Amino acid sequence: MGPVHGFAEALRALENSRPRVVLSSSSDRAADVIREHIAAGLFRPGARLPEEPIAESLGISRNTLREALSQLIGERLLERIPNRGVFVRTPSVDDLRDIYRARRVIEPGCLRLMPADADISDVVAAVAQGRAALDANDGDAVASANQQFHRSVVALAGSPRLDMEMSRLLAEMRLVFFRAGPAEDFHRPYVERNEEIVTALAEGRGRAAAANLLDRYLVTAEQHLLSTYPQTGQG
């Protein structure tokens, strides 16, 4: 099933998912579905988003869809090219640096703020999925499991607003990863790092220890990604 025709299913899944920030309008819900498609790797940088089939699949008007697209343009996930349409953005090296500034504040901070009795089963499951995908040589599944790991880390803080912000950052990150070479090769060393963080949490070494591991992890990942990017302001 192609990404455009999968929008209706994605919208139904979103409506049935656990509550996050309340989405107040049809355009908010449409923006969330498109964002999740980007985070899942279904849209690559440079892909054009045709308005008519997307609006039809979501069961919304083109005006409502345009509101959603404008929202995602503001989030720097999409861009409008005059006389051509709306396209998925290609993040620049400056975007990459700023994404990691935000991630280093949010993700370790969520580990430090998580309740002592927080349920870490989703984080554990994401690590297991990453290991299984790596063993199966499924690069796309490794990337998706890594995204889920970081989403689950932020969810430990119990903040719907941080959950929403992380969904935006992860969508941008998926676009960044398209420039990093084969997904399996890039994510391989981070599967083990994810396991180290979960072990620190599970063994009771403390939230601070896990947060410090994650902070160092993000520094390494940023430098790794920068090595794959053209060193100019616009990627």
Determine the CATH superfamily of the largest domain. GntR ligand-binding domain-like
The coarse overall form would be globular
Oligomer: single chain
Largest sheet: 2 strands, antiparallel
Which ranges are low-confidence, i.e. pLDDT below 50, for 5 or more consecutive residues? 10-23
Provide structural commentary:
With 235 residues, the protein is mostly helical. The chain folds into 2 domains: 24-88, Orthogonal Bundle (Arc Repressor Mutant, subunit A); 93-228, Four Helix Bundle (Hemerythrin (Met), subunit A) (Up-down Bundle). 66% of the residues lie in helices and 3% in strands. It contains 10 helices and 2 strands, in the order ααααββαααααα. Strands 1-2 form a two-stranded antiparallel sheet. A hairpin with a 3-residue loop joins strand 1 and strand 2 (85-88). Helix 7 runs antiparallel to helix 8. The chain is globular. Mean pLDDT is 86; it is low at 10-23. GO terms for molecular function: DNA binding; DNA-binding transcription factor activity. Keywords: DNA-binding, Transcription, Transcription regulation. Residues 24-91 form the HTH gntR-type domain. Pfam families: FCD, GntR. This is HTH gntR-type domain-containing protein.
Write the SSE topology.
Elements: H1 7-16, H2 26-39, H3 51-58, H4 62-74, E1 78-81, E2 85-88, H5 93-113, H6 121-135, H7 139-155, H8 160-177, H9 183-202, H10 207-226
